[in-house]
Amino acid sequence: MFEFILSRRHFAAAWTPCIGPILGAIIYASLAQPPEQTFIHITAYSLGFSIPFILLGFAIEKVRFFHKYSSHLMKIGGFILIIIGVMVYFDQVYVINIWGAKAEFFLKGLWGDGY
Fold it and tell me: Rounded to whole angstroms, how far apart are CA atoms 96 and 39?
């Protein structure tokens, strides 16, 4: 029982830096929006955060890809973390925003303004 409580505490401590700033930014950005828009933002955030965990929970036994290539996936994830860390250190994170804006412009060109 103690191990279960301890593991939940560690999970919560690791989870807080992930959920806090993003959810706080969404709530802060939604202050000037009507409640319907805020509901859409929070719902999208919640679904985007929970659906991958739910799907992985159902499919983890059946998906051998993660077991087979887990070392490669860990190296790719570590490389991405190093790149983002270097970008933060040199104050170049805005490049990700520029890429996102270009991707949004590209998607609007493909599907129109209603995508």
Answer: 26
Query: DSSP per residue over 66-84, as a string?
Result: HHHSHHHHHHHHHHHHHHH
Tokens encoding 108: 């609007």
CA geometry: angle 55, 60, 66, nearest 5 deg: 110
Tokens coding 34: 């009507």
Identity of residue 44: A
**Model pLDDT for residues 5-55, shown as the tens digit of each residue:** 666 676 666 666 677 788 888 888 888 888 888 888 889 888 888 888 788
DSSP state at residue 31: G
